[in-house]
Amino acid sequence: MHTVVERELELRLILSPERGIPVPARLTYRTDDPYAVHITFHINSEYPVNWTFARELLVEGVFRPCGHGDVRVWPTKVDGHSVVLMALSSPDGDALLEAPTTHVSAWLERTLRVVPPGTEGEQLGIDDALDQLLAQ
Asked: φ and ψ at 64, to 5 degrees?
C-alpha cells in the first residue's frame, strides 16, 4: 500500500518585478515514487501543467539556492515574507513561481515523516527483488 501526501496552495506566477498572477497548484508526494515531488498547476488551459523533480531539490531550496538546468529553487523574502522561488524551464517556455515558505516547508515535513531522507530506496523494494532473484 502506498501513501500520498498532498497540499493545495496558491502559487504566484511572476510576470515581471511589479506583476504576478495567482496560480492554483497541488503538491503531491507518493511513496511509490519516493525520490520525486509532483506539482500540478491549474492554469487557464484545457489540461493542467505537471512538473516532477527531485524532492531533495525542493528540500534544499527552502534553505539555499540549488539546482541548475530545468529546475532551480531558492529562498528569498518578498514584502517581509519568506518565499521559495522556483524557476522552471522547458521547450514550451519558462516560468518563475513563488510559494509561501511556511506552506512548502510544512508539506515537505509531512513527506519526510512518511519517508525519511536516505530511506527512499526501501520504498521501491529493490533489495527484496534482488534477494528473490539471487535465491533462485
From this structure: -155, 155
Query: Which amino acid is residue 16, in one-letter code?
Result: S
Query: Grid cell 524532492 — which residue?
Result: 55
HEC per residue, 29-56: EECCCCCEEEEEECCCCCCCEEEEEEHH
- Name the pTM for this structure: 0.85
Measured distance CA(12)–CA(83) in Å, rounded: 10
Q: Rounded mean pLDDT of 27-32?
A: 95
DSSP state of 132: H
Cα distance between residue 85 and residue 62, in whole Å: 9
* pLDDT tens digit sequence for 35-75: 999 999 987 778 888 999 999 999 999 999 999 889 999 99
Instruction: Return the closest-CA partner of residue 25 out of 35, 39, 5.
Output: 39
C-alpha cell at position 92: 514550451
**H-assigned helices in the chain:** 55-61, 101-114, 120-124, 126-135
